[in-house]
Amino acid sequence: ASQPLTLAQLAAMMRVPKSTLMRLLRSMEMHGYLLHMPAERGYVLGTRSATLALRMLRGSNIRRECRAVLRNLVRALGETCNLTVPDAGRVLYVERIDTTAPLRMQLEPGIWVPMHCTASGKLFLASMPLLDRRSILDQMPLPRHAPRTITDRRELEAELERIARRGVGIDNEEFVLGMVAVAVPVRGNDGKLVAAVACHAPTARRSLDELLTCVPDLCKAAEAMQRILCPAKS
Predict the structure, then answer these.
(1) Are 110 and 93 in contact (CB under 8 A)?
(2) Confidence check: pLDDT of 234 > 70
(3) Does the pTM of the predicted model rise above 0.70?
């Protein structure tokens, strides 16, 4: 779900009595698998759910296949590439292959980064239905991480509309000064965005315009990721 779900919504979706579901939700919340949002806004996944999902994605076969796709992409582009997913208003790094070049940014799998100033994050926001996007932005702080970070809500919404039309997320030194990035969607069998394949590089080696020329290679990698993460049903 792109936004919190209430007890009533979950009970209707799962077709179980509210009293039964409430006991399950309380237990899952107590153990860190769910988080109850304030003001009765509903439930979102907790940190242990994200950790569990990450471990499953990084399990033997899937992990090797995802890393193989990223490794081939890094060989083709010469820059660091990663696989990310949206996670409760943040971006979670699921897998990553670093460039061998000495100048690079260190972000290990399992780390979360903000949505409003990263290529993957802005792509995730731009891909949401408008009402869901506005609901997320209503709750999202927009701190400045670099001189070019977009901290104005209207300016960010205009940027997200441009990204939605283009279908490519960009980070123009907005998260880290001197680093640029582009991201393309990985879609499920229903066409909905489930992850992103991204590449970032220091501006000392590549400009954002130069990195955008890599989009066709990124899209091919995204198609390969789709076959791994969302195999077609027989």
Answers:
(1) yes
(2) no
(3) yes
